[in-house]
Amino acid sequence: MKYCLGLDVGGTKILGGLVDERGRIVEQVQQPSHPDRWPDVALEVVAQLLEDPPGVVRAVGLAVAAWVEFPSGRLAYAPNLVITNRDLVGEIEDRFSLPAGVDNDAGAAAWAEFRFGAGGGMSDMLMVTVGTGVGGGAVLGGFPYRGSRGFAAEFGHVPVSMDGPRCPCGSYGCLETVASGRALGRMARERVGEDSAILELAGDRAAITGELVGSLALNGDAEALSLVSQLGRNLGVGLTGLAKAFDPQAIVVGGGVSALGDILLEPARAEMVARYEGQVDPPELMIAAMGNEAGVVGSADLALQRAQV
Ligand SMILES: [Zn+2]
To answer: CA 190 to CA 78: how far, in whole Å?
Structure first.
């Protein structure tokens, strides 16, 4: 059995795993990290996992929450990590004598879903991760699609409104500004009335979060359900644009907010159906199957694909 090593690099922790050819994590390590020190923590995690592997390790892959230049692996924009001038790919290759590569985290998750999860058997699949922000990944014609420089599939930053809210990326009206966990919190802060149960529970308008609204919606609170439904319709507008641009077999929805399930996806689906009316059926919407392991499994398997080319 061949193994690859995958790392999911976040702002506060790094999860690493040895992954076999069937996408199973056979050994894993998690270390707290820091936006400044992440390259050193990443090297430590790789070293730990390579101490006593069960078989031959072929390559190392990193999934990073950043816009990642391909094939250099250089980070171009990372909201939660400090970008250094270090050549981490080169450092890993020199120190451990293994080929290494870096991918965007949602791109790696999309690849994991395509290879081992919800996208099994498909050739064209998009993934949208809805969490605090919105990430994206694309598999087209059976291959990961990265665009000319590596910055493709940033679906959270596709504009959906001419003059919508300011986005952390610097632009305006991005899908992320109207269809993320952060957007759900903002919409609630703007809209709830003085006698709202959401406001009463939060104690203060400024303390209302998307998480609170989501949990109330799951408990059947009508106002929270209506806000989640609006979020779903906003998401559906964005997904319709993606579907019409790429004509995938399915769009897989992952990320923390996707745990809301049907109360989010049904309104999104309805919006897509309405915007495909009289044309063809829209592609299927599916919930991601790989959970928190997607970044580790996807980055490891992408590293293997690269090593085999
Ligand atoms: Zn943006």
So the answer is: 28
Residues with CB under 5 A from ligand 1 (ion): 157, 167, 169, 171, 174
Distance of alpha carbon 64 from alpha carbon 11, whole angstroms: 9
Q: pLDDT tens per residue, the chain (309 residues)?
A: 889 999 999 989 999 999 999 999 999 999 999 999 999 999 999 999 999 999 999 999 999 999 999 989 999 999 889 998 899 999 999 999 999 999 999 999 999 999 999 999 999 999 999 999 999 999 999 999 999 999 999 999 999 999 899 999 999 999 999 999 999 999 999 999 999 999 999 999 999 999 999 999 999 999 999 999 999 999 999 999 999 999 999 999 999 999 999 999 999 999 999 999 999 999 999 999 999 999 999 999 999 988 876
Q: Which CATH architecture has domain 120-288?
A: 2-Layer Sandwich (3.30)
Separation of alpha carbons 181 and 129, rounded Å: 11
Collapsed DSSP state (helix, strand, coil) of residue 8:
strand
Start-end of CATH 3.30.420.40 domains in the chain: 3-112+292-308, 120-288
Cα-to-centroid distance, 86 and ligand 1 (Å): 26
Instruction: For the domain covering 3-112+292-308, report its CATH number.
Output: 3.30.420.40
The three-state DSSP-derived secondary structure of 49-71 is: HCCCCCCCEEEEEEEECCEECCC
Distance 155 CA to ligand 1 centre (A): 9
- Quick check: 114 and 288 in contact, CB under 8 A? no
- Is-contact 145 126, C-beta < 8 A? no
21 contacts 2 by C-beta, under 8 angstroms: yes
> Which residue carries 């001038």 as its tokens?
85
List residues bridging with 174 in a β-sheet.
159
For residues 137 and 62, give the distance between their C-alpha atoms in angstroms, rounded to a whole number: 15
157 CA distance to ligand 1 centroid (A)? 4
